[in-house]
Amino acid sequence: MAELKGRDLLSLADLTSEEVTALLQLAAQLKSGQLKPQCNKVLGLLFYKASTRTRVSFTVAMYQLGGQVIDLNTTTTQVSRGEPVEDTARVLDRYLDILSIRTFEQQQLETFAHYAKIPVINALTDREHPCQILADLLTVEECFGKLKGLTLTYVGDGNNVAHSLLLGCALVGMNVRIATPADFKPLTEIVEQAKAIALPETEITVTEDPEAAAKGSHVIYTDVWASMGQESEANSRIPIFQPYQVNEQLLSLADPEAIVLHCLPAHRGEEITTDVIEGSHSKVWDQAENRMHAQKALLASLLGI
Fold this sequence. Notes:
By secondary structure, the chain is an alpha/beta fold. It is built from 12 helices and 9 strands. Helix content is 42%, strand content 14%.
């Protein structure tokens, strides 16, 4: 993966189809123990949003690569006092080898990447969640032995996860169906971008009909109905999104061997029922584990180790 050395990952669209495939292959090799690259590099975590899986998986991944991690708590650094992004970026560039940022606005992430020469990773913005989708694709490939030609259905809010699923599935040749309420569709520009980079014969569908979207699908995927920063809207969204709940009835429409994914944290009884997330079709915990393996592959590739 020498071609990724020194690059940023701000969006899955920054990668080619071949690069995504190679990253997933590397992640599988790292997970199996076939490869054990080592480094003495330092990863910085600059998180403006709460995190469990992203923080821990990046930390453990870097430690297993032999590197070090600095958790840059935004409440105790000068960013909390209004230090300009470009100043912080240029200083961290001189201390760290790689930086992972979890924040709200995509523009802030892009500003960091512009002023820092080290690789910058999108650990989540309101626009995209690329690292999550790398783990998702790894999980699907483990379950089915392939990606191309499969169909993934995402049901719920047309949020950052939906955006990155559109791009990621397009790159690997998976059909993707996004089912959302009318006022909560993914950004049109992301949908068009996904269509532009999609492999031949890949189908990209955006619909308001969750049952039609689920029919015959190999993967049923959902996320919370109100993302971080939208907590005040949570109660008002419940009746709007109730028809989009992933439950046994919806799952029964999918392929008999379908798997269920959720990027977590989950609100049982809202976007997904307890019997589904704890059921035999659920691969949610494998999916969560794969965050670490996919990100380890990404770190190794961007650092060139």
